[in-house]
Write a structure and sequence with these properties.
Elements (H helix, E strand, L loop, with lengths): L18 H11 L13 H13 L3 H69 L4 H7 L4 H11 L1
Helix pairs in contact: 3-5
Length: 154
């Protein structure tokens, strides 16, 4: 625990050695500081100096500062909300597009599978001696299509 008599602390800024001495210097000289000295150029002292400046505002300046701060927060939140809505909309559109593309791919795959199954059925029936007119009745193809598939399989 440290005890400090502020009037007895007479170090100059260039004589400060540790953080305790820096705090003592900061507190003793705060009223006379217009800007933060280089020796106190650390985030903690910058925050403390900013807080002290705000505490030193007259009522009119404090009200103006608070109004400005609230405007900033409002604008920041409007931007954040717009970004969130944009992201949500983008995700929804991407999902919808992905589902549509997936359905289209599924249809194309199902059509290709049905075509392969029909060709396999035609070839199997033909190889087992089933006449072409009966094969045409068995699959959803014309006689010309059935003959073309049989010709390609040879």
């Amino acid at each position: 625990m440290y005890y400090l008599q502020m009037p007895a602390f007479n170090k100059k800024s260039h004589e400060l050695g540790n953080r305790f001495e820096k705090w003592a210097y900061f507190l003793k000289n705060l009223e006379t500081l217009d800007k933060i000295p280089q020796i106190l150029n650390e985030p903690i002292f910058e925050r403390a100096f900013g807080t002290a400046m705000l505490a030193n505002l007259n009522p009119e300046q404090a009200q103006e500062y608070e109004h400005s701060r609230l405007n900033y927060i409002g604008i920041r939140e409007v931007i954040r909300t717009a970004e969130d809505k944009g992201i949500t909309k983008g995700i929804a559109e991407g999902e919808a597009r992905g589902r549509a593309e997936g359905r289209e791919e599924g249809r194309a795959e199902a059509k290709a599978e049905a075509e392969q199954k029909a060709q396999k059925t035609i070839i199997t029936l033909h190889n087992n001696g089933v006449p072409i007119p009966i094969i045409v009745l068995s699959v959803d193809k014309t006689e010309a299509e059935v003959r073309a598939i049989i010709a390609e399989s040879k």
